[in-house]
Amino acid sequence: MMTRFIILVVGCLLFQTATSQDFHFSQYNENPLLVNPALAGSNHVMRGSIVYRTQWSAVATPYTSYGLSFESRFKASNWEKADAKRGMIFTKAKNRMAGGISIYNDKAGDAKMGTFAANLTYAMFFPLNKNSSISLGLQGGLVQRKMDGSNLIYGEQYNGYTYDVNMPSGEAYTRQSFMYGDVGSGIVYTFSRGERSVAANDQINAQVGFGAFHLTRPQQNFLNGESDRMYRKYVFHGNLLFGIPNTLMGIAPTWLVQMQGPSKEIMAGLMMKYYIKDNSKYTGNIKRWSIGVGANYRTGDAVITTLLVEFGKFAVGYSYDINVSKLANVSSGRGGSEITLRMMTPTAFLYQRRSKAMY
To answer: How many CB atoms lie within 10 A of CB 240?
Structure first.
């Protein structure tokens, strides 16, 4: 099964080639299933999140996007080899698999141009050594696109003196909504090294990956006689979190590059974390609390300021895009605000006493 899965995912990634913009969030690390299917289950046993974003309220009818995602590892006891000094369970990890579900929706402009997408994601992980692994992911789902053309104004409806709503628009809309299937895949390398002691704060976590979306290039058209296929999207991404030894500080640089047809987006940034309360290394009852402050730059478009508060199993993130493009003359720098809520569970078997050794 593993061999077939590897062949399928790698084949999708090598299958080469937008008329429509994909879902777009500034806190991309809080929406991993939109970045790469292989990220499902890569950082937590179980993780759920919701996100809401609004933008361009200073320029036009606000664009709004929102969604939720849930991901979980399958048979989590196969994932961990707990600390031998604590006399915990040891497992021989053969089947490291994870899955996820995500639902996103957006609405844009006076035409209420909207996209609704529901996807299922499957990922499989292959350990390289005790600190690193490679994961492969597949994603598939259904997408509905819709619009309301009744609020639009067309040049053909100008009668020479004024706008006349009764004049034909000249546009041959055959439908105001349509559906299509969508497929994506990805690969991620993960390195994780925990703290060497309770308060050393010398952990390192790093990920780098490549994702590909819209592999079948689905048709996108509302008008008669048009053949408009969506460009494939390619995503390159990476993140790093490392603690400053013997301090309460952590540094988390991230980057993201997305390419879709003639369009390209490049983002890079840094977050500084201050740890208010540390994890309990032996009972699991006390979870780490932290406050993170950071900034990202989306080239040619915006500076993004971010605040992230993590408290135990929960986290709240808020970001604001400060527009620095030519549109700033109209928007006065006001871009968009975004809020995320996250809940996650720690490793379910990490603090369990040994019942029998499994090798």
So the answer is: 16
Q: What are the CA-CA distances from residue 10 to residues 17, 23, 229, 316, 318 (Å)?
A: 15, 24, 23, 35, 36
Which residue's entry shows tokens 């604590």? 86
- Burial class from Cβ neighbours inside 10 Å (0-12, 13-18, 19+) for residue 161 reads exposed
Among 75-89, 154-168, 245-259, the range with the most confident prediction by mean pLDDT is 245-259
Strands (E) across the chain are located at 46-55, 63-74, 97-108, 113-127, 132-146, 177-193, 204-213, 233-243, 249-260, 263-277, 289-298, 302-311, 314-323, 334-345
Average pLDDT value over all residues in the chain: 79
Residues 4 and 219: their CA atoms lie apart, in Å, by 29
Task: Give the Cα separation of 32 and 270 in Å (integer).
Answer: 17
Q: How many Cβ atoms are within 10 Å of 85's Cβ, its own excluded?
A: 7
- pLDDT of 8 strictly over 50: no
The tokens of 46 are what? 């179980």
Instruction: Measure the CA–CA gap between 164 and 171, rounded to whole angstroms.
Output: 15
Contact present, 313 and 33 (Cβ < 8 Å): no
Decide: 39 and 186 in contact? Cβ < 8 Å: yes
Per-domain boundaries in the chain: 2-345
Residue written as tokens 């996209």? 115
The position carrying tokens 């720690």 is: 346
pLDDT digits (tens, 9 = 90+) for 74-117: 875 556 555 455 444 445 555 689 999 999 998 876 667 789 99
- Rounded Cα distance between 4 and 12, Å, is 12
CATH of 2-345, one of 2.40.10.10, 2.40.160.40, 2.40.50.140, 2.40.50.150: 2.40.160.40
Q: Give, as one character, the DSSP assignment of residue 21.
A: P
pTM value > 0.70: yes
Cα–Cα distance measured from residue 137 to residue 122, given in angstroms and rounded to the nearest whole number: 6
Any idea of the CA torsion for 163, 166, 171, 173, to the nearest 10 degrees? 140
